[in-house]
Specification:
The protein has about 280 residues and is an alpha/beta fold. Helix content is about 40%, strand content about 15%. α3 packs across α4. The longest helix has 27 residues.
Length: about 280
């Protein structure tokens, strides 16, 4: 009798493991809408909608707002359950002081073609970065990622030097997150899209700001802190004691990020205007 129960349990476990492997991208990329919403329809008419070609033949959308003279340009990568139209409140805060914006809609999301995967999202990010470089110098660009989008920001930051990198609610890797959600399954062996930010972030050379809510229910605060510990200087970490995964903007994360950019700009200006050292 016991061996039959054990056999049934083993079969059920193997079935559940196989099912988890099969549907993992549905968990990782819950697309709330694949329908296109224009900036005007989203009540963000100052943005220009641009379609970009990726290296593998997809067409992805960016919303572009030009900066005022001397202001940086935020290249924004959204989270896994978002579309650009939902982030209009965030975007208005970005551009209120003249900061520019290039917000990418990942493949499969909000009018962009294709199906999401790690390699696909990295191609989308590269297309957006190359679009940005056609308009602005790299020293004006800021890679700003939220949640899933932090993996794309880190991957680009490991390849290119920019003005700054800002990460909201980041992770060390998708495997680390999944292992906490599904502790009884060998998820580290099953993950297709690992997004190993912990392996990429030591290669960044740009100033880094990481922000994380201490009550984050989706990506544990500990993972954001571990990612910060892995990163090289210069870097800064801001924890929000009451912040959850989706409430950081309510606790001032956007204004903290913009203040960080002002500090960087001021430090760069002071360095540029400092008198040259003379030999004694």
């Amino acid at each position: 009798m016991l061996w039959r129960l054990a056999a049934i349990a083993a079969v059920l476990y193997l079935f559940a493991t196989g099912l988890l492997f099969t549907v993992q991208r549905n968990f990782l990329y819950p697309i709330p809408s694949s329908l296109r919403t224009t900036p005007e329809a989203a009540q963000f008419p100052q943005a220009e909608e641009v379609f970009l070609d990726t290296s593998d033949g997809e067409k992805v959308i960016v919303w572009h707002v030009a900066p005022q003279p001397g202001k940086p340009v935020v290249l924004f990568f959204h989270g896994n359950g978002e579309v650009l139209a939902w982030d209009v409140g965030r975007f208005r805060e970005f551009v209120a002081d003249g900061t520019g914006l290039i917000a990418l809609s990942f493949r499969g999301y909000g009018g962009s073609s294709g199906k999401p995967s790690e390699s696909g999202l990295l191609k989308d990010g590269l297309a957006a970065y190359e679009f940005a470089l056609r308009h602005y110098k790299a020293e004006r660009l800021v890679l700003w990622g939220y949640s899933l989008g932090t993996g794309v920001a880190v991957a680009l930051g490991a390849r290119f030097h920019v003005s700054a990198i800002i990460l909201e609610a980041p992770y060390t890797s998708i495997a680390d997150v999944a292992a906490r959600i599904f502790p009884f399954f060998p998820v580290r062996l099953l993950i297709l899209d690992t997004f190993h930010s912990d392996r990429r972030i030591p290669k960044i050379t740009s100033p880094l700001l990481i922000m994380h809510g201490e009550k984050d229910e989706a990506i544990p605060f500990e993972l954001g802190r571990r990612l910060y510990d892995t990163a090289p200087q210069p870097k800064r970490f801001i924890g929000f004691p009451e912040g959850s995964h989706v409430t950081l903007p309510y606790f001032g994360s956007i204004q903290v990020g913009l203040a960080f950019l002002r500090d960087i700009s001021l430090a760069a200006a002071q360095k540029e205007n400092a008198p040259a050292a003379t030999a004694p």
